[in-house]
């Protein structure tokens, strides 16, 4: 990865650096900024299973339904589910994430978790 394509919040969220994420959010970092792949910091934290960072971003008002680019692309919930990060999936669902949101191939979170063989997420 070339770091200039990411904000400091993207980097900290993707690496699970809780203290740094907290400082950046307190300083007004853009929690909806997009990286080169159109991901928000919440996408990266969910994909990497950084549960505490996901909670921090949600508490700061990050959009849990953000799509990576166009309608139908993955939400943070889709990314956590496909990777089998059941704790992050539970945090997102408890916060109100739409489990029925569909990707371009019409897959819900349940579809992607089942297809990837993640029993804990399916339950």
First-to-last CA distance? 34 Å
- Taken from the alpha-carbon principal axes, the silhouette is globular
Continuous helix count:
8
Q: Unreliable runs, pLDDT <50, ≥5 residues?
A: none
Q: Let me know the average pLDDT.
A: 91
What's the CATH architecture? Alpha Horseshoe
What is the number of independent domains?
Answer: 1
Radius of gyration from the alpha-carbon trace, in angstroms = 14 Å
- Beta-strand level of the residues, as a percent range? under 5%
Total count of strands: 0
Oligomeric state: single chain
The helix-strand sequence is HHHHHHHH
Percent helix range: 40-55%
The first-level CATH class is given as: Mainly Alpha
CATH topology: Serine Threonine Protein Phosphatase 5, Tetratricopeptide repeat
Keywords: ANK repeat, Repeat
Organism: Heterosigma akashiwo
InterPro entries: Ankyrin_rpt, Ankyrin_rpt-contain_sf
Pfam families: Ank_2
Keywords:
globular; 123 residues; 8 helices; 50% helix; 0% strand
Could you explain the architecture of this structure?
The chain is mainly α. It is 50% helix and 0% strand. The chain has 8 helices and no strands. The mean pLDDT is 91.
Write the layout of secondary structure elements.
Elements: H1 8-15, H2 18-26, H3 41-47, H4 51-59, H5 76-83, H6 86-94, H7 109-115, H8 119-122
Summarize the structure.
By secondary structure, this protein is mostly helical. Helices cover 50% and strands 0% of the residues.
């Amino acid at each position: 990865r070339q770091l200039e394509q990411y904000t400091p919040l993207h980097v900290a969220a993707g690496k699970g650096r809780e203290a740094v994420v907290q400082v950046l959010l307190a300083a007004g970092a853009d929690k909806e900024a997009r990286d080169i792949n159109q991901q928000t910091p919440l996408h990266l934290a969910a994909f990497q299973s950084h549960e505490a960072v996901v909670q921090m971003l949600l508490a700061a008002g990050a959009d849990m339904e953000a799509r990576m680019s166009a309608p139908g692309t993955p939400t943070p919930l889709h990314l956590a589910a496909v990777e089998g990060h059941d704790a992050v999936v539970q945090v997102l669902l408890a916060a109100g994430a739409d489990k029925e949101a569909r990707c371009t191939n019409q897959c819900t979170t349940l579809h992607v978790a089942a297809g990837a063989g993640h029993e804990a997420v399916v339950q």
